[in-house]
């Protein structure tokens, strides 16, 4: 009888513990969701590069996801880094093959820049991108039309970190601090100052109830990851 009683008691304790854990998990998920009062799009252009692995480590350690607008020539030369981007939970976008001024090119040349990059990224394990960022943010109706022909939504930005122009880490953090719900910031894969800014960018977003989201191909705005 004593053994039966102990078994019944143990079963009751295990059942109660499981119920408590289930309840805690159920309440934790809404709390995490509630902490995100909005989403912003962190974007990094011109990779993959020799800095990509360090950047991915910093993003992971800070709990951030981002969209990596890769150049096709670098993706073809460094396919393992594209796979690393995907493995780290990042989204991969098209940033042309050689980073030219697309608005100065013929339709055939624009098409080549975009289509070759789609192929290079797919071959590298980056999937088929749905987002396209024209180099320098330069675009026109022809560029948009050719991108759309390849199933791509053109993405520019609302906030420019100026990291390409030698902005300090403090200035990059301050730029990220101007982001509001749905907005996108331009940063670069190769920038050492941007790399150093990542943990502080994460802290600033958390303090303002914002989370790093994905960029919707439908709206071109940052939204909750799907």
From TrEMBL:
Please name the SUPFAM superfamilies in this protein's record: Glycoside hydrolase/deacetylase (SSF88713)
Where the record annotates domain NodB homology, the positions are: 38-213
- Which N-terminal residues, if any, form the signal peptide? 1-28
Alphabetic keyword roster: Hydrolase, Metal-binding, Signal
Q: Which PROSITE patterns match?
A: NODB
* PANTHER family with a match to the protein in the record: CHITIN DEACETYLASE 1-RELATED (PTHR10587:SF133), GLYCOSYL TRANSFERASE-RELATED (PTHR10587)
Name assigned to this protein: Polysaccharide deacetylase family protein
Q: Which organism is it from?
A: Streptomyces violaceus (Streptomyces venezuelae)
């Amino acid at each position: 009888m004593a053994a039966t009683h102990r078994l019944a008691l143990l079963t009751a304790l295990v059942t109660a513990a499981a119920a408590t854990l289930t309840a805690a998990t159920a309440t934790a998920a809404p709390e995490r969701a509630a902490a995100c009062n909005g989403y912003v799009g962190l974007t990094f252009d011109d990779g993959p590069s020799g800095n990509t692995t360090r950047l991915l480590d910093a993003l992971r350690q800070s709990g951030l996801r981002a969209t990596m607008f890769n150049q096709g020539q670098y993706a073809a030369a460094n396919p393992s880094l594209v796979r690393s981007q995907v493995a780290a939970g990042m989204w991969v976008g098209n940033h042309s093959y050689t980073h030219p001024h697309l608005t100065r090119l013929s339709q055939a040349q624009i098409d080549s820049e975009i289509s070759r990059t789609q192929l290079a990224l797919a071959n590298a394990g980056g999937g088929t991108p749905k987002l396209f960022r024209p180099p320098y943010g330069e675009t026109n109706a022809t560029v948009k039309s050719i991108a759309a022909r390849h199933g791509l939504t053109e993405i520019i930005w609302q906030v420019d970190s100026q990291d390409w122009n030698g902005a300090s880490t403090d200035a990059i953090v301050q730029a990220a601090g101007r982001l509001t719900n749905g907005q996108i910031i331009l940063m670069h894969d190769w920038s050492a100052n941007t790399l150093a800014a990542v943990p502080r960018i994460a802290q600033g977003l958390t303090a303002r109830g914002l989370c790093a989201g994905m960029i919707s191909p439908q709206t071109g705005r940052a939204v909750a990851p799907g």
